[in-house]
């Protein structure tokens, strides 16, 4: 049986289990929560008082799903942010993508987007 020192063990675990942050940027979870709250607020300003949150969200999603794939890429997410007057650095966009993308396929489907923007408003973190 091979015995490792702490440094070798951490290196082995990190390389085999990809331990650690997968993003090249670190963004604090509270920053992501703040941005999501700002997205909610600004989306409702874009919509009208007669429309539900889901209706407004679905229309924005369709408008910016430019390739009609049924999912948003990071560039399409960036365009939504510009539309609702929120400027974000790439590190925050990457963090948002990772937050929304629950099935980890690299894009955001409408159900994932809706879950975070509308559904999570009723869930206490």
Features:
57% helix, 125 residues, mainly alpha, 2 strands, Recoverin, domain 1
Task: Set down the secondary structure blueprint.
Elements lengths: L5 H12 L11 H18 L6 H12 L6 E2 L1 H10 L6 H11 L7 E2 H8 L8
Antiparallel strand pairs: 1-2
Helix pairs in contact: 2-5, 3-6
- The level-1 CATH class: Mainly Alpha
Q: Could you say which overall geometry the principal axes of the C-alpha atoms support? A: globular
Question: What is the fourth-level CATH superfamily?
Answer: EF-hand
**If you average the pLDDT, what whole number results?**
79
Description:
It is a single chain. With 125 residues, the protein is mostly helical. It has 6 helices and 2 strands. It has one domain (25-122): Recoverin, domain 1 (Orthogonal Bundle). The protein has a two-stranded antiparallel sheet with strand order 1-2. Mean pLDDT is 79; it is low at 13-22.
